[in-house]
Specification:
There is one protein chain. By secondary structure, this protein is an alpha/beta fold. The chain has a single domain, classed as Histone deacetylase domain (Arginase, Chain A). About 30% of the residues lie in helices and about 20% in strands. Strands 5-8-11 form a 3-stranded parallel β-sheet. Helix 3 crosses helix 4.
C-alpha cells in the first residue's frame, strides 16, 4: 500500500469465513457436496484438476469460503456505514461458476465454464445483500465487464425463476427422457423482477472457433429468460474506445 492511499483505504487482510447458507443460496447442494468431497479426500501434497484449468488442493475449500466471506463482509461494512464502497481482491474468482458448477455452452457443447472458479462470489454477495438486508436493499445490479461472458452468473440469475431443463439418453431400453427443475430464489418470488445482470464480453469466432466460453448472445424477447439479463456481446478484438461508446449509448 502506498502512502498516497494510507489514510483513505481500510485493508481487511483476514476476512471472516462465509457461512454455508451464503453459498447454498446460489449453488445446488449436489455441487456443494461434490466439491467438498473432492477437496477433503485430497492428500496434503496432491493437486487435482477439477477441469482443464481449475486446480484443487486440500486448502481450496477454506480458500473458497474465505473468498466468499470477504464479499459478504464487504456488503456488511457498506450497509452498516463503515465504508462507502469496497473492492475484494480474492481468489478463486467466480463468474463462470453456475448453480452446479461449469456451464456448457448451447452454441458449442465442448466449451464449458472452467475459469478457475469454485463458487460464484459476486452472486453470493448479491444474494446476501438482497436477503440479509431485505428491508433496505430492494434491487440489485451485477455489472460484469470481463472479456469473457459471465455465464455462471447468468445461469444463477435464471434460477430466480423456475427453470426446467430437459435431457435424454439412449439406454438398454428406448430413449429415456429426463426433466430437471431448478429454482433458487434469494428472497421471494419477485426476485427476477428486482435483480439485473449485465455482461459485456467478447463474442464470436476467433482462431477458427467460438471465443471462450461460446455464450452470451444478445437476449431476445422470445428466449424465455428472466427480464433482468442484458448481454452486450462485442466482436472479438473490440478496442477500448468502442467498448466505452457501447456503455455510453
Amino acid at each position: 500500500m502506498t502512502d498516497e492511499f494510507a489514510d483513505t483505504l481500510l485493508w481487511i487482510l483476514e476476512p471472516p469465513r462465509a457461512n454455508a447458507v451464503d453459498i447454498l443460496r446460489v449453488h445446488e447442494a449436489s455441487y456443494y457436496s461434490r466439491i467438498e468431497e473432492l477437496i477433503m479426500t485430497l492428500p496434503e501434497d496432491k493437486i487435482k484438476l477439477l477441469d482443464s484449468d481449475t486446480s484443487l488442493s486440500h486448502k481450496s475449500w477454506e480458500a473458497a469460503f474465505y473468498a466468499a466471506g470477504a464479499v459478504t463482509n464487504a456488503v456488511d461494512n457498506v450497509m452498516k456505514g463503515h465504508n462507502r464502497n469496497a473492492f475484494c481482491l480474492i481468489r478463486p474468482p467466480g463468474h463462470h461458476s453456475g448453480p452446479t458448477g461449469a456451464v456448457a455452452s448451447e452454441l458449442d457443447r465442448s466449451q464449458t465454464s472452467n475459469g478457475f472458479c469454485l463458487f460464484n462470489n459476486i452472486a453470493i454477495g448479491a444474494a446476501y445483500a438482497k436477503c440479509v438486508y431485505r428491508d433496505i436493499i430492494k434491487k440489485v445490479a451485477i455489472i460484469d465487464f470481463d472479456v469473457h461472458h459471465g455465464n455462471g452468473t447468468q445461469e444463477i440469475v435464471e434460477n430466480l425463476n423456475l427453470r426446467v431443463v430437459k435431457d435424454s439418453f439412449v439406454a438398454t431400453v428406448p430413449l429415456v427422457k429426463l426433466e430437471y427443475r431448478f429454482y433458487k430464489p434469494w428472497l421471494n418470488e419477485d426476485d427476477s423482477k428486482n435483480v439485473l445482470f449485465i455482461s459485456s464480453h467478447g463474442f464470436g469466432h476467433a482462431s477458427g472457433k467460438m471465443f471462450y466460453p461460446a455464450s452470451g448472445e444478445e437476449v431476445k424477447d422470445d428466449d424465455n429468460l428472466p427480464g433482468g439479463i442484458l448481454n452486450i456481446p462485442l466482436e472479438y478484438g473490440t478496442d477500448s474506445s468502442t467498448f466505452r461508446k457501447v456503455y455510453r449509448d
